[in-house]
Amino acid sequence: MEHRPAPTPPRLLVTGASGFLGWHLCRLAQATWQVTGTYHRQVPQPLPGVNRHRLDLSDLEAIAPCLAAIAPAAVIHTAALSQPNRCEQNPAQSYRVNVEATGVLAEVCAQHQIPFVFTSTDQVFDGQSPPYNEASPPSPVNLYGHHKAEAEALVHDLHPTAAICRLPLLYGPPSPTAECFLQGFLRTLRSGQPLSLFTDEFRTPAYVEDVAAGLLLALEHAPGLLHLGGPERLSRYDFGLCMAEVFGVDPNLLIPSKQADVTMPARRPPDVSSDSQKAFAFGYRPRSIVAGLTATKTWSGTLAQ
């Protein structure tokens, strides 16, 4: 019998591979794709089947040559300046990375008919009329949300068949070079220090690996807008209570607070809960908060795999 070699998997380019979401996405995607992940300053830990490529997205002239060198079959753009306070304090850098670089990526992908997925945010909404679905008009209250909404419009105009995925608050195990808010919360509580959490800021948090799977699903099946929120709406404080229960830390250290109690450079919308029924219909299956926190707690050995 003639032996035929297995076909080479298609090449996927993931921007922001050293970030929290980007690293988990690369790790998940390498099972079915030949993955190249871009990074800027922090070099991602090596992963089987994942190549690494340095790219400074603020250097707009470097983007097209990078894609030409990698020749991807698809691109998922997770890299961003994603901290609202930092965006507010660095508006030019935020615009360059979050808007202009996204536009260049979308335009180059469109020119070469490369499928493109852009990761946006629930922060494009003002939090006054939840839950938000794909038909809800953007109404951002901070610069990060404004820039992501502007980038969404650019992607839509430049690459009409792209997928634009609005992501919720993400949590899960850290990557080798990036944490989420959860690790900081746990360090505070385990040191015996109180932790103030808002009772009047509501989100639909999602476990990072579930969202990574949702992005791959969007790449295959879902052009246009898609919300990838988690299955439960809860406040930061309620999330903290779940976290305390799963990780066995003292819930009495959690201090209920209000958004108005804290002065921040960027305004926060009060309730940007996502209606993700469209994604659920495509097969997106984010796990419950308790299940996601339990998976985070039991994560072991994966950073070395």
Key words describing this protein structure:
13 strands; 10 helices; 305 residues; seven-stranded parallel β-sheet; globular; alpha/beta; Rossmann fold; two-stranded parallel ribbon; single chain; disordered C terminus; 17% strand
List the helices and strands and how they pair.
Elements: E1 11-15, H1 20-29, E2 34-39, E3 50-54, H2 63-70, E4 74-77, H3 84-89, H4 91-111, E5 116-121, H5 143-158, E6 163-167, E7 170-171, H6 181-190, E8 195-198, E9 202-203, E10 206-207, H7 208-221, E11 224-227, E12 234-235, H8 236-247, E13 254-257, H9 277-282, H10 289-298
Parallel strand pairs: 1-2, 1-4, 2-3, 4-5, 5-6, 6-11, 7-10, 8-13
Antiparallel strand pairs: 9-12
Helix pairs in contact: 1-7, 4-5, 8-10
Q: How many runs of DSSP E, i.e. beta strands? A: 13
- Described by the principal axes of the CA atoms, the overall outline is globular
Structural class: alpha/beta
In terms of quaternary structure, what is this? Answer: single chain
**Relative helix content:** 25-40%
Q: Write the element-wise H/E pattern from the N-terminal end onward.
A: EHEEHEHHEHEEHEEEHEEHEHH
Catalogue the unreliable spans.
300-305
The N- and C-terminal alpha carbons lie at a distance of 35 Å
In CATH terms, the superfamily of the domain at 11-180 and 206-231 and 273-287 is NAD(P)-binding Rossmann-like Domain
CATH class of the domain at 11-180 and 206-231 and 273-287: Alpha Beta
Placed side by side, the strands forming the largest sheet appear as: 3-2-1-4-5-6-11
Q: How confident overall, as mean pLDDT?
A: 93
Number of helical regions: 10
User: Which topology of the domain at 11-180 and 206-231 and 273-287 does CATH recognise?
Assistant: Rossmann fold
CATH architecture of the domain at 11-180 and 206-231 and 273-287: 3-Layer(aba) Sandwich
Strand content: 15-25%
Describe the sheet with the most strands. 7 strands, parallel
The radius of gyration over CA amounts to: 19 Å
